[in-house]
Amino acid sequence: MMGGNAGSMRAKGIFVSGTDTGVGKTIVAAAFALSLQKAGFRVAVLKPVTSGAVLVNGRLVSEDAELLRWASACTAPDSDIAPYLLREPLAPSESAAREGVVIQLKSIHAAFERLSTTHDFVIVEGAGGLLVPLAKDFLVADLVNALSLPLLIVARPNLGTVNHTLMTCECARSRGIEVLGVVINGQPEQPDQAEEYAARVISEFAAVPVLAVLPRCSGTDEKTLVKLLSECAEMPTLTKLLSLEAPHEIS
Ligand SMILES: Nc1ncnc2c1ncn2[C@@H]1O[C@H](COP(=O)(O)OP(=O)(O)OP(=O)(O)O)[C@@H](O)[C@H]1O
Ligand SMILES: [Mg+2]
Fold first, then answer.
1. Of all atoms in ligand 1, which is nearest to the CA of residue 214?
2. What is the pLDDT of residues 109-166, one digit of tens each?
3. Ligand 1 pocket, residue 128 CB under 6 Å
4. Segments making up each domain of the chain, as ranges
5. Yes or no: domain 17-233 corresponds to CATH 3.40.50.300
6. Strand ranges, E, within the chain
7. Is 47 designated active site?
């Protein structure tokens, strides 16, 4: 049974970053969380910093964290899943400064530790891309390093994505971050020329695999979208990639 192997997975988690904001980090992270959860893993999710949190019944809510919680069925407290909620939809360092919040690595680290001791796997979603500032002298990339997690890069499919994806890979590598691979998200049913070659060119030049090319699905709500993507053929490959690193896989 898959669940029986869960404890043997070496990496305790994955950090989902993107080439940009709005590329589908939450949707891809949620689809992966749902796929792992359905396979029997106890999955936790962590959205360390949310800018653009919304007021619901007088309470600030991270919509990203809500979707991730639903997909993972994680029951950890909101304060661990989404520790920093900022109202302004700006770079987190700016939103935080304007709202008098100091984003502290040690608080995020502590939340991650609590989640990882009570779950098989933690899926962390960054904010924007790798060089987004969280505080003075503290970028998303520094958070990835502090949590010692391998990186999954979500990229868009269209013209310009090769440049953004290769820059993200190079940035990760220069900072000692392990890149597991790239997920291209939102491939149209009828791709144009650039969308047709993007995956091939990225895998040729990035020296990391393109693990999945996920389709663009229009006209669905976000939960349906996450369900559809979680059923894509590439999801088990992702799971396998992570569990393949298990030290006691053959036991
Ligand atoms: N494969 C897809 N097909 C159709 N729509 C998609 C797909 N993936 C993402 N979307 C839509 O694109 C928008 C951005 O996706 P998402 O919120 O996952 O991006 P993000 O990278 O997490 O953004 P942020 O930087 O704000 O966290 C959402 O409205 C989402 O529903
Ligand atoms: Mg998001």
1. 1
2. 999 999 999 999 999 999 999 999 999 989 999 999 999 999 999 999 999 999 999 9
3. yes
4. 17-233
5. yes
6. 13-18, 43-46, 49-51, 54-56, 59-61, 84-86, 121-125, 133-135, 138-139, 151-155, 179-187, 210-215
7. yes
